[in-house]
Amino acid sequence: MSQITKDDVIKALSTVDDPDLKRDLVTLNMVKGIIIDGTKIIAEVELTTPACPLKDVIKNNCIAAIKRDIPEATIVEINLTASVSGKSKNDIMPGVKNTIAVASGKGGVGKSTVAANLAIALAREGAKVGIIDADIYGPSMPLMFGLNHKNGLQQDPETKKLAPLESYGIKLISIGFMIDDENPVIWRGPMASGALKQFMTDVNWGELDYLIYDLPPGTGDIQLTLVQTIPLTGAVIVTTPQEMSLIDAKKGLKMFERVNVPVFGIIENMSYFIAPDTGNKYDIFGTGGGEKLANELDSKLLGCIPIDPRIREGGDAGKPIVEALPDSVK
Ligand SMILES: Nc1ncnc2c1ncn2[C@@H]1O[C@H](COP(=O)(O)OP(=O)(O)OP(=O)(O)O)[C@@H](O)[C@H]1O
Ligand SMILES: [Mg+2]
Predict the structure, then answer these.
(1) pLDDT surpassing 60 at residue 1
(2) Is the pLDDT assigned to residue 328 strictly greater than 90?
(3) Per-residue pLDDT tens digits for 10-26
């Protein structure tokens, strides 16, 4: 029996395509290491994000290809690692690789809920994640992550930068960590924009794969400040299926397009309700709105989230549903 060589393994892996990028793993330089110990093969495949939804498919395809092309292999192991590629190179936060705004035109559609759960989902996959609560007048992150001004933000005596607070492995900054939540913020627009800017310039974010911005509703000062301060990797638009919300979502999406921020797509929240006792489905806010909007604007419908009291309870209790019930939202 001839010895298995690295070339044999590379040849086998060059038949496996990344389903998204439609090129093979070797050409894409994703095969980072191969160890051969007799008839045991261990290969390291580096993904572009630990949150790759197709990682199991890639892993299984690699194992199948090696077993098919190298039948003498007795044990085949694929170790998936990830190195997040950054598209948001900026001097203000040099360690932050990607910046994502969660936005909508309309209030109360679930931006903060989506931002919090998206962050937790990414962190659970192994990514380094932070959230900037850009809603200066109505911050939601303190409640959603069970943190407030009493947790005491710390300032580095040398750099004078603030250390973000941490919850469920996510770094967070919010105006609600600086003032008590009984008192409203009564500031003029420029002060609110100034606060958002400082959340970027005066906070020690360190190394992050994804920094998520939970935006207030609308297309005002805060949104403009954000797009003018740093290059955003992209934006996600949240809407509910009803017409009122769709009109505002369209405005939100167009604003990002106008300033050349790519829109990843639309998330339709509160899409339907399944009655727990009967299992009947109710389209409380109408149906198909998100898909219609995505088609009309040549965007993508990224997903639909049902109305589920557990989503609200999780947000109110400081434990978003992806943390509290990770298997409920797949
Ligand atoms: N899919 C859902 N099922 C049940 N409750 C939800 C769902 N999505 C959001 N909620 C609840 O609806 C309320 C509004 O959601 P959220 O605060 O995320 O909206 P928002 O768009 O950030 O609002 P604002 O414009 O005020 O910032 C919250 O109480 C939240 O828990
Ligand atoms: Mg909000």
Answers:
(1) no
(2) no
(3) 999 999 999 988 999 99
Reported as a single tens digit per residue, the pLDDT across 192-244 is: 999 999 999 999 999 999 999 999 999 889 999 999 899 999 999 999 999 88
Pocket flag, ligand 1, residue 144 (CB < 6 Å): no
CA 62-16-22 angle, 5° bins: 135
Burial (0-12, 13-18, 19+ Cβ within 10 Å), 20:
exposed
Confidence of residue 330 (pLDDT cuts 50, 70, 90): very low
257 Cα–ligand 2 center, Å:
22
329 lines ligand 1 (CB under 6 A): no
Q: Distance between CA atoms of 212 and 201, rounded to whole angstroms?
A: 15
Domains of the chain: 6-82 (3.30.300.130), 96-328 (3.40.50.300)
109 lines ligand 1 (CB under 6 A): yes
What pTM, to 2 d.p., does this model score?
0.88
Q: What is the DSSP code string of 68-96?
A: HH-TT--EEEEEEEE-PPP----SSSTTE
* Ion ligand 2 residues within 5 Å by Cβ: 111-112, 140
Q: How far is the CA of 307 from the centre of ligand 1 (A)?
A: 10
The Cβ of residue 255 has, within 10 Å, a number of other Cβ atoms equal to 21
Pocket probe for ligand 1: among 284, 312, 328, 329, the residue whose CB has the most ligand atoms within 8 Å is: 312
Report the nearest atom of ligand 1 relative to the CA of 115. Answer: 18
